Amino acid sequence: MKVSVKVPATSANLGPGFDCFGLALPIYNTITIEELVDPNEEIQINVFSDEFDVNEFHIPTDKTNIVYKAVDLLFSYIGQTPQSMRINIYSDIPLARGFGSSASVIIGGLVATNELLGRPADNDTIISIANEIEGHPDNIAPALLGGFVLSSVESDGSVTTRKLPWCEDWKITMCIPDFELHTSISRSVLPEMVSLKDAAYNAKRTAMMVEAVHMRDEKLFKLGMQDKLHQPYRMKLVPGLEDIMKNLKHIDNVLGTALSGAGPGIIVVTSDSNTDVIKNIITETWNNYGVNATLKTVQIEDRGAEII
Ligand code: HSE
């Protein structure tokens, strides 16, 4: 038996919602898991991409691969160990750019395995297993559920998630630079402790964002999409980020600019799809720093992982 699952890219944080907000975007990875008939065959893992040279990324194709780890955890959940299988990963989501490529393959592996096993795990269980590997749920939750999602890891390891509304007029411009930044490095520059003032600042902004998406309140959204917990520390890792944010701040239809997840990608939320001015500003600003980027304006993807 063989199951294929298509999973969207994601953008986490959206400014103030560090490790909490995430939304799904219409670029996809597809994970196919095939049970092999001969139980003596090794686990096979293959990675393909039409978008980039997979060899450049040295993606492990042994049991250290994160898709295999996810599969193994789900088998453990039902008290079994994985049998011979072939895992094919078709990757269109750019790697190490802040668009949830690892969350998407973990979710793809879990949803495909769950289907092969007769669906022993519900969505909450899938998210909590995925979180064991990823460490934070903000990319995982929208990769599975689609749309704009808030998520929180509880002390027992369970993950609370809620899908929030999103105004269909609000578009996302994905800005994908030509350099990589690994999440571990981007997290290593964050402080252990922050001031009460900064924590309160983000609590207020996050609350504003929740109300803004419910009320489709653009003014409130614009106020909300600001952050003092992670972006200020990460500016030094993403040349041009500070200038791009400054240069887009007063453009009419811009509702907010944020580092996408741990970066180095950036997202710009706009109130319509008229983004030529915005794209020119980003291209020119990044050019000053010798950075080339692919820019793409999209609608958020309301569907999450799908068996195809
Ligand atoms: N919330 C995470 C971070 C997303 O900002 O580090 C990256 O996967």
Describe the structure concisely.
The chain has helices at residues 66-77, 101-116, 123-134, 140-145, 183-188, 196-215, 218-224, 231-234, 241-248, 276-288; strands at residues 2-12, 21-35, 44-48, 85-91, 148-153, 159-164, 171-177, 254-259, 266-270, 293-298, 306-307. The chain has 308 residues and is an alpha+beta fold.
What tags apply to this protein structure?
308 residues; alpha+beta; 11 strands; 34% helix; globular; binds L-homoserine
Task: List each distinct ligand once.
Answer: L-homoserine
In whole angstroms, the N-to-C terminal distance is 14 Å
Q: Compute the number of helices.
A: 10
Mean pLDDT, all residues:
95
What proportion strand? 15-25%
Return residue spans where pLDDT drops below 50 for at least 5 consecutive residues: none
Helix content: 25-40%
Instruction: Please tally the β strands and state the result.
Output: 11
Largest sheet: 7 strands, mixed
How would you characterize this protein structure?
This protein has 308 residues and is α+β, with helices and mostly antiparallel strands. The mean pLDDT is 95. The protein is built from ten helices and eleven strands. A hairpin with a 6-residue loop joins β8 (254-259) and β9. The structure holds L-homoserine (HSE). L-homoserine binds next to α5. L-homoserine (HSE) binds next to α5.
Topology:
Layout lengths: L1 E11 L8 E15 L8 E5 L17 H12 L7 E7 L9 H16 L6 H12 L5 H6 L2 E6 L5 E6 L6 E7 L5 H6 L7 H20 L2 H7 L6 H4 L6 H8 L5 E6 L6 E5 L5 H13 L4 E6 L7 E2 L1
Helix pairs in contact: 1-2, 1-3, 2-3, 6-7, 9-10
The structure holds L-homoserine.
The site of L-homoserine has 13 residues, from helix 5.
